[in-house]
Amino acid sequence: xxxxxxxxxxxxxxxxxxxxxxxxxxxxxxxxxxxxxxxxxxxxxxxxxxxxxxxxxxxxxxxxxxxxxxxxxxxxxxxxxxxxxxxxxxxxxxxxxxxxxxxxxxxxxxxxxxxxxxxxxxxxxxxxxxxxxxxxxxxxxxxxxxxxxxxxxxxxxxxxxxxxxxxxxxxxxxxxxxxxxxxxxxxxxxxxxxxxxxxxxxxxxxxxxxxxxxxxxxxxxxxxxxxxxxxxxxxx
Length: 236
Fold this sequence. Notes:
Blueprint: E1 9-12, E2 15-18, E3 23-26, E4 29-31, H1 35-46, E5 52-53, H2 54-61, H3 70-85, E6 95-98, E7 102-105, E8 110-112, H4 120-129, H5 132-181, E9 190-191, H6 206-221, E10 227-228, H7 231-235
Parallel strand pairs: 9-10
Antiparallel strand pairs: 1-2, 1-8, 2-3, 3-4, 5-7, 6-7
Helix pairs in contact: 1-3, 3-6
């Protein structure tokens, strides 16, 4: 297995992670992942297949002088990471929990080569070596292609947007009429609580938002008249 310092980019499942640009992508789509879950993912991937203790993770996420409930904060950060990976603690595909000890990354990890740098200097030299006519033609051609591609894209997307807008207005009008005629027939049978966001700007307080989300789900689950969708299913 590669040493921790050599892993700059890695692939596991449908995900590709870049530790230099701090990006996590799934099938090319960039996912939003906060700093603490990203650090946990980095340490787990670097030690794929090995136990990473809770003490090691806490030391990575917080300095010794930080005043925080480490257990609650760590649980919240791991839960956010699992939400992004669509993973489950009960049936893990990526992150396995070893109760009271720590976590282990169980999926195969492929270490990728470093992304090639763009040769800016070579491009400038090539343009300087061209004649004025050649330079003007080379620079203008991509612009013309871009304009043509943009026009084609607009011609394709505008009718679709108009159709979607028309259907949306029609559906809203129909629903309003149904509610006006049969207000007592419309009942909520199930609800989903989406994760609350930490807007304080302090990453160490993220566990407060997760705690409030869990409290809402728990309290609403006590109602007999409505079904509360689980946190993992809501993320799907």
